[in-house]
Amino acid sequence: MARITDTQGKPEAPEPGRLARALDSDIWYSFTRSPLAVVSALVVSLFVLAALFAPLIAPHNPFDPATISILDSFYPPVWEEGGDPRFLLGTDDQGRDVLSTILYGMRISLAVGFASVVFAMLIGITLGLLAGYLGGWVDSIVMRIADVQLTFPAILIALLINGVARAMAGPQSYDRVVFVVLVLSIGLSFWVQYGRTVRGSVLVEANKEYVLAARLIGLRPATIMFKHVLPNVLGPVLVIATINLALAIITEATLSFLGVGVPSTQPSLGTLIRIGNDFLFSGEWWITIFPGITLAILALSVNLLGDWLRDALNPKLR
């Protein structure tokens, strides 16, 4: 098969693939020139991989009663006097390995964080598109609901939704639906930021020529909103999502610390901190300190990554 040639008879260079275009983009250049962003991305990736492969890399299974002995409780870290080489970071009050519980706990914290951010994005983007594009009474209703919700802290809204769900489900059924309840309560607390941001961007995009042209050729409003307008307003949404991921993880940890999160039999990082807090002043500091450090490093790394992404997507800073 003959190769395509230009007007001078020379073969044309093949178009670069998606990976080549990504590596040649301004965002990748900005990323490689920011050591803080690179380190943050590596830390977040390490934590995510450690959580995903926790069953393979964890020294023990903290959720298997057959492998847990109460006689192994309150072992200090291995470098402390009385430490056991089987438990590098010590054990908790139930004899569970602290390192293993952190790895498994990160799975729950990250899963709740990612799911709640996706849920909040779906609600916020949809309502923001409708409010900005349709305007009128739709815009007024959505924005008034957002204004009312902004008067309450996100944690109080999450506690309210969580309490209502607990009362409706009952104590017996709540543990089976606690993951879904946490995702709904945290997601419904964070959708306002996406909705207001998308609405403002849509108000700008709605008067541009490509939207007016799409209206003239008879495209449906849903097609214009989701196929043409939405791709042009995703930049700020991605920044908010990255920062909100850290907030969602911290909110889940706060709810679990307050005792309204996941049960202690399947602890997240917040539950581990709450369990260890009961023994902090009796000398067993490692039970709460190590999960707390893990949570702080994870949230800080995600926040730093979000700050870099905000600057990288800002055309005024390029």
From TrEMBL:
It is a multi-pass membrane protein. Pfam families: BPD_transp_1 (PF00528), OppC_N (PF12911). Keywords: Cell membrane, Membrane, Plasmid, Transmembrane, Transmembrane helix, Transport. The chain crosses the membrane at residues 36-58, 108-133, 145-165, 177-194, 229-250, 285-309. CDD domains: TM_PBP2. It is found in: Cell membrane. It comes from the Bacteria. Residues 106-306 form the ABC transmembrane type-1 domain. PANTHER family: ABC TRANSPORTER PERMEASE PROTEIN, OLIGOPEPTIDE TRANSPORT SYSTEM PERMEASE PROTEIN APPC. Belongs to the binding-protein-dependent transport system permease family. This is Dipeptide transport system permease protein DppC. It comes from Nitratireductor thuwali. The gene is dppC_2.
